[in-house]
Amino acid sequence: MSMHALRNVMTATMAAVGAVALSLAGPAAHAAAPLQYAALGDSYSAGSGVLPVDLTNLLCLRSTANYPHVIATRTGAALTDVSCGAAQTKDFTGAQYPGVPPQLDPVGPDTDLVTMTIGGNDNGTFINAVLACGSAGVLSGGQGSPCKDQHGSSFDEQIDKDTYPALRTTLRSVRAKAPNARVAVLGYPWIVPADADPSCYAKLPVASGDVPYLRGIQAHLNAVVERAAEESGATFVDFSRASEGHDACKPIGTRWIEPLLFGTNIVPVHPNALGESRMAQQALSTLGLG
Asked: Which end of the chain has fewer CB atoms < 10 Å from its terminal CB, N or C?
């Protein structure tokens, strides 16, 4: 074979090898690009009370085992977690604490995924309802419906009047900053069972008639969160079925939410590690990820 012919063969061979290499490297390089994931929200997002604690910001009592971290691990996403205990919708656009910037700050056009649980702290809905019903339950010895008798529809009225419009405005702000992102808004898993459980009174001292009352408030809040999510083009992650039978009255290993008393978390009436993991699982399933 002449030198000229040999050079032609070598050139053709190198070109073929290069084409194969590019065809192999191209998809791999594309697949390696991680989702840009921003996790926002309150203590249910932050996993407040679940160990280990994120030491980069102790004010927010954020866990490195919260559902955003579980989602990021299972999807390989590049996570920016700014969720913060006690956060309200107003903390998306304003500083919650000194040195804790607005939660929307890391959200932008390049964000691929946003998750959050938010709304429960607006008007103090969760904490006020739980404390009011717990205190009334202790004073009544667990009998009757003293919390409902005293507060009636006031919690529901606040949710409709204040929480719903705040959620709608907040979610539209998220969409405006991240027009290309998938936005998932997680509901709140059940705190109390559908009916009173007398054996739970020591852990969650709510009067028997106030158990369905408290659950009704939570159901109303979740319905409002779902409505605001749908109106802003976000995906609502529903726990009404998934968390049934995993409320704070259930034993360790079954419950997702810790009770008010004698629980295992440093923050009561919040998801434990199992709850955070299951919240992540439900979000991944709803979004078709992972």
From this structure: N
The number of domains in the chain is: 2
Shared domain check, 9 and 121: no
| Full domain range(s) for residue 25 | 1-33
Span 235-278, pLDDT tens digits? 999 999 999 999 999 999 999 999 999 999 999 999 999 999 99
* Alpha-carbon span 252 to 184, nearest angstrom: 28
Active site residue 140: no
The residue annotated as part of the active site, out of 43, 48, 83, 243, is 43
- Using CB atoms within 10 A of its CB, is residue 163 exposed (0-12), middle (13-18) or buried (19+)? buried
The answer to whether residues 104 and 23 belong to one domain is no
- Whether 135 is a known active-site residue: answer no
Instruction: List pLDDT tens digits, range 53-102.
Output: 999 999 999 999 999 999 999 999 999 999 999 999 999 999 999 999 99
Active-site entry in 48, 246, 270, 277 = 270
Residues 254 and 171 in one domain: yes
